[in-house]
Amino acid sequence: MKPTDDMLSGLPFWGQLSATQRADVAEMTYTRHYDKGGLIGGGANCLGLIQVLRGGTRVYLLSPEGREVTLYRLGVGDCCVLTASCVMRQITFETHMVAERGTELLILPAHTFARLTGENIHVRCLMYELAVRRFSEVMFSLQQVLFTRFDSRLASFLLSESARTGSRELRLTHEEIARQVSSAREVVARMLKRFASEGLVSLRRGVIRLERPEELKKILSE
Questions:
Q1: What residues does 79 pair with on adjacent strands?
Q2: What angle do helix axes 174-181 and 185-197 make, rounded to 10 degrees?
Q3: Which pLDDT value is given to residue 104?
Q4: Looking at residue 68, what is its pLDDT?
Q5: What is the 3-state secondary structure of 84-140?
Q6: Is the pTM of this model over 0.90?
Q7: Is residue 10 very low, low, confident or very high in pLDDT (cuts 50, 70, 90)?
Q8: Percentage with pLDDT > 70 across the chain
Q9: What ranges make up the beta strands (E) of the chain?
Q10: How far is CA 74 from the centre of its chain?
Q11: For residue 86, how many C-alpha atoms fall within 13 Å in the half-sphere facing its CB?
């Protein structure tokens, strides 16, 4: 589907493009819808520059054993260039992206994006700025996995999901949480049971209710 003028003008470098470059971007850019759980590019598939118009995505590494390590998430308005790895030769590892809910993306194909980075210094600078921003998030995620206690990581995730959804009731399975916090489902289940025994949360099938969010916040500073 072709994007509207409002969608195109939301690209962070739109104002720095020449008339010819704008026409090229308008011609080549398209939108695509992904259902919840849909894979977006990933692996060796070089999709191009993307911007989230609706919904949200999760970016992760996949181990040979099938374990997922969440690197970062993208929300409405966020752009990502790691999906254009063939444009940035410095990117030598494969990431995967999945839609966390019904998601619509604005996609600038890799070949058009590569041409723009070669012609326009503003686009090239933005590419590296976005890459640095995402790598900063990657390093933070790895730091959390390596050096932060799991009870603190889980409490942080539950609180952030509650803030994002505006609800103290989270409809999430243990498997979904495990993927988000880069752990095993069994580890998540054990920690949730501990939280429940302490009265911090209550559990029922597919639903976690935050009973004492202020106490969960205290775990983050311990």
A1: 51
A2: 110
A3: 97
A4: 83
A5: HCCCCCCCCCCCEEEECCCEEEEEEEHHHHHHHHHHCHHHHHHHHHHHHHHHHHHHH
A6: no
A7: very high
A8: 94
A9: 30-34, 39-40, 48-54, 57-62, 68-74, 79-80, 96-99, 103-109, 169-170, 201-204, 207-210
A10: 4
A11: 15
Tokens of 68: 């997922």
* Chain center to CA of 139: 14
Cβ-contact 155, 216 below 8 angstroms: yes
Give the Cα-Cα-Cα angle 52, 53, 54 (nearest 5 degrees).
Answer: 95
What domains, with CATH codes, occur in the chain? 5-146 (2.60.120.10), 148-220 (1.10.10.10)
Cα separation, 98 vs 191, in Å, equals 26
Query: For residues 194-206, b (16+ Cβ closer than 10 Å) or e, as one string?
Result: ebeeeebbeeeee
Q: For residue 190, give the 3-state DSSP assignment.
A: helix
Residue 86 confidence (pLDDT) above 80:
no
Please give the residue that has the higher pLDDT: either 125 or 144. 125
CA end-to-end distance (rounded Å), the chain: 50
Q: Which two tokens stand for residue 73?
A: 């998430």
